[in-house]
Design a protein that fits this description.
Blueprint lengths: L2 H7 L25 E2 L4 E2 L11 E2 L2 H22 L3 H17 L6 H13 L2 H14 L5 H14 L4 H14 L4 H13 L3 H14 L4 H15 L1
Helix pairs in contact: 2-3, 3-4, 4-5, 5-6, 6-7, 7-8, 8-9, 9-10
Length: 225
């Protein structure tokens, strides 16, 4: 990846993921604010075809939101040991996706998160890939969950984890959280020179950040030895 080119378009986004339970399940009207109730139109770039206007009725919008809302307590029940509740939540997310003709990514992200909780990692990866396919320009949230799947659940090799980080960085323009995570990962596996490059990108964006300054100093000391 051309780091200098990426640096020129690098924009740090400080954001909070909407978390429900320990499984990072997303439900928020803010995440689905591209369902325009006044006009019934969807125009957000995270559709599969962002240049095409897709029309939905007010009732469809309400039903979509209700499916997502109803899934939340089922996930909590699943966290408490009721596997059937997980499966029912997945069914609701699938119904939500169907309302959007499978062209909205949030239900597939949540399906992936549930399968990850259930230990069905192949299905989780399949759902994340579907979410990324729909989100034409890539989704930072989905990539972060897929990176977690690779790094902590599937225990992929460092090379495979690096590959998905690089894929995310080449796909996303606003990739601040991924750069932060990637910098730390590279540092932890001993890729000090590469980690240093990314920490310098972060410091260039946030010149007063003492943590980045400390990491850069430590890495430079290791490289000089």
């Amino acid at each position: 990846m051309n780091i200098q080119k990426n640096k020129s378009i690098f924009v740090i986004i400080i954001c909070l993921l909407v978390l429900i339970g320990a499984g990072y399940i997303t439900y928020s009207k803010g995440y689905f604010n591209y369902w325009q109730k006044e006009t019934g139109n969807v125009t957000n770039q995270d559709q599969k075809n962002p240049d095409e206007e897709i029309k939905f009725t007010d009732e469809e919008v309400k039903q979509y939101e209700q499916y997502l809302k109803d899934a939340s307590p089922l996930i909590l029940a699943g966290d408490n040991g009721n596997k059937e509740s997980y499966l029912k939540a997945i069914e609701l997310y699938e119904k939500a996706a169907a309302i959007g003709n499978n062209n909205v990514w949030i239900p597939f992200l949540n399906i992936g998160n549930i399968y990850k909780k259930m230990g069905e990692y192949d299905k989780a990866e399949e759902a994340y890939n579907k979410a990324l396919e729909i989100s034409k320009y890539g989704s930072e949230t989905v990539y972060l969950q897929k990176i977690d799947l690779y790094q902590y659940y599937l225990k992929k090799s460092n090379e495979d984890v690096i590959k998905i980080y690089e894929e995310a960085l080449s796909t996303l323009v606003e990739n601040g959280n991924i750069v932060v995570r990637y910098s730390g990962f590279l540092r932890d596996i001993g890729e000090n020179e590469k980690a240093l490059e990314y920490y310098k990108i972060l410091l260039d964006r946030f010149p007063e950040n003492e943590l980045y300054k400390e990491e850069i100093a430590k890495l430079e000391a290791k490289i000089q030895k």
